[in-house]
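Working notes for the structural subgroup meeting. M.R. asked for a predicted model of this chain before we commit to crystallization trials. I am recording the input and output together here so anyone reviewing the notebook later can reproduce the run.

Input as submitted:
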Amino acid sequence: MNLILFGPPGVGKGTQAQNLIKNYNMRQISTGHLLRNAIKNRTELGLRVEKTLADGQLVSDEIVGTLVKDEIQNRPNLWILDGYPRTISQAETLEGLLRQVPSKTDLVISISANDAELVRRLSGRRTCSKCGAVFHIEDQPSQKEGICDKCGGALIIRPDDQKDVITRRLQVYRDNTAPLEKYYEAKGALQRVDGSGNPEQVFGRIQELLQKKGLK
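Returned structure, recorded in token form:
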């Protein structure tokens, strides 16, 4: 089974993707991770998108589509797309890319939560500057404030987790990505999951859904 996870920033798509990897031997394709790695490595593409991401805006369909196609070609099955597509245009591009591989999307899961909770989650997130491990000042604090438990690196606030940027990111989501619900619903591929509560509760809801779809 190949899945697309989507929902607003901070809803927990990355966390649930990791749960799916551990429990179902799936592979996460996170466009956010791919882009951040490009920025960290100071590649030509990374330099092009750095300012765009810092401003909370969307990277061009051409750039993201190229990254996704390369990843899916390496393994055309048992993948989870996290953070892509974000627009109907990208969804249409993805369908064309999957036909070329060939591969297909089996299920689209839309995770939702209210804006106040999303702002709380994102503004409290801290990311290791060395290994990329993610913590939260309330939900998952590091043992020593400001220091990564895994590698000892400094914990930082990502530029796109600043409160003013979070507000812009949520608006961009509402304007560009939320319409994907109707797009995939019309294709009979969409399932909605309540993203409130702790990650274990949310994953329990996702597991129930997958079991109904025949994934054990």
